[in-house]
Structure formats: C-alpha cells, structure tokens
Design goal:
heterodimer, A: mainly beta, six-stranded mixed beta sheet, four-stranded antiparallel beta sheet, 12 strands, globular, B: mainly beta, seven-stranded mixed beta sheet, about 5% helix
C-alpha cells in the first residue's frame, strides 16, 4: 500500500541556518512519482518538485535541494540559508501513476524560521 | 492565468445540516481532485473527477459526494454534517487524467468548514 511518512511534525530553526525535511515512502510499484508541496499561511499548496522513480539524480533549485534515495525509500528536502519566508507547512507526496490517479500526502512538517 | 477558485472560503454549519462547496479549476484543466485537511489526519484524498466522471474515491463515507460539470467546475457535498467534518477542504486541478504524468496539482486556498 502507498504510504508517506514525515516523522518531523514541527521544526524551528534560526534564519540563515540550513534545514532538512525528511520523507520516507512505501509503494508496491516500480513506477511512481514523488512530490514536495509548500503550504503557506494562505492555505493553498504550492508545487515545488516532482521526481519519477527512474530518476535518482539529486536536484538543486536555488536554496532548495532534494535528495532521492531509492535504497532507503527517502526523498528529503533541504533548504539552505533559510529565510523567514520559508516558514510554512511542507508536504511530501507519492503517486503510483499507473495503479491509480491520486496523490497520497504525508502529514506535513511545519517549519518555523525564526528571525 | 487565473488560479483555482474555491467558494465559499469560510462557512459555519451546525450538526445535521448539509453543505455544498464549489471549485473552479484553472482554464483548460479537466481534472479536479478534492482533499480534506485536518490537524490530526493531514491531507486526505476525497475523490477525483475527470471529464465529468468520478475516477477515484478515497475512504470517506457516502455522506461525502461530488460532481463535475461540463465546464470542469466541480462541487462537493457533505450531508448530515458531523463535528468531525470540520476541516479545510482543498480543491486541486490538473491538466490531464494521470496526475503522475502531468506532475503538478494546482490548489485553491480552500474552504474552511466549521461544524458546531
């Protein structure tokens, strides 16, 4: 069965520190997609990244980077030099694209960046 | 382009009442999904519609229902409201049917329902 676990419920760091959000997933499929979404206080989730199961390359986008490791079923997200605007709830999600067409979300990690 | 629009943004109901929430997807998007977000359970999938057909459904009781119109707008209905139905209901749209292939869901700001 599909499952996404974000063990960190809440994290607080001081501005400019680096922070890593953990995500562990479970799936029966060999073809699947992983996502990260950001939910600011306004409520709408904002797409950050998608990674398919055949692409284990790590990705960097500005201060954001993602580490995908199939061997440990993890898809961790790192923010370097954090800023107050990064404060939000971050969700990791999984889709088994050819089995059904829904995205299963983790419970989210609430990130507080303290000035 | 205009984003996903959900109405109403906030509403208060009492137990036993019913509620209808509306979602207008991004123009051109044919898939609409609904999620319930609560502090305890996180984001839970309700259902997904594509071209007016419900293609997938989460593990919610029959009191939760939805539909999609020919213009892709969607509504969800909750009948006989219970206190536990208090939540943020999020709608998301995507271009195609296979969300994994399109890769991205566009979310609205949600409808916050409080049941008293």
């Amino acid at each position: 069965a599909q499952k996404v676990t974000q063990a960190q419920t809440e994290i607080s760091v001081v501005e400019k520190e680096d922070v890593t959000l953990d995500c562990v997933y479970e799936t029966r499929d060999t073809t699947y997609y992983l996502f990260w979404y950001k939910q600011p206080p306004s409520g709408e989730l904002v797409f950050l990244i998608r990674r398919n199961s055949f692409d284990e390359q790590n990705e960097i986008s500005g201060r954001y980077s993602w580490n995908f490791q199939k061997s440990t079923s993890s898809f961790n997200f790192t923010i370097t030099a954090s800023q107050v605007v990064d404060s939000a709830v971050y969700f990791c999600a999984l889709s088994e694209a050819y089995r059904d067409d829904k995205i299963i979300f983790g419970k989210g990690t609430r990130l507080h960046i303290l000035p | 382009k205009a984003g996903v629009t959900q109405t109403p943004r906030y509403l208060i109901k009492t137990r036993g009442q019913q509620v209808t929430l509306s979602c207008s997807p991004i123009s051109g998007h044919r898939s609409v999904s609904w999620y319930q977000q609560t502090p305890g359970q996180g984001l839970q999938f309700l259902f997904e519609y594509f071209s007016e057909t419900q293609r997938n459904k989460g593990n919610f009781p029959g009191r939760f229902s939805g539909r999609q119109f020919s213009n892709s707008r969607s509504e969800m209905n909750v009948s006989t409201l219970e206190l536990g139905d208090s939540a943020l209901y999020l709608c998301a749209s995507s271009l195609g049917a296979l969300v994994g292939n399109t890769g991205e869901l566009f979310f609205g700001e949600g409808s916050r329902l409080t049941v008293l």
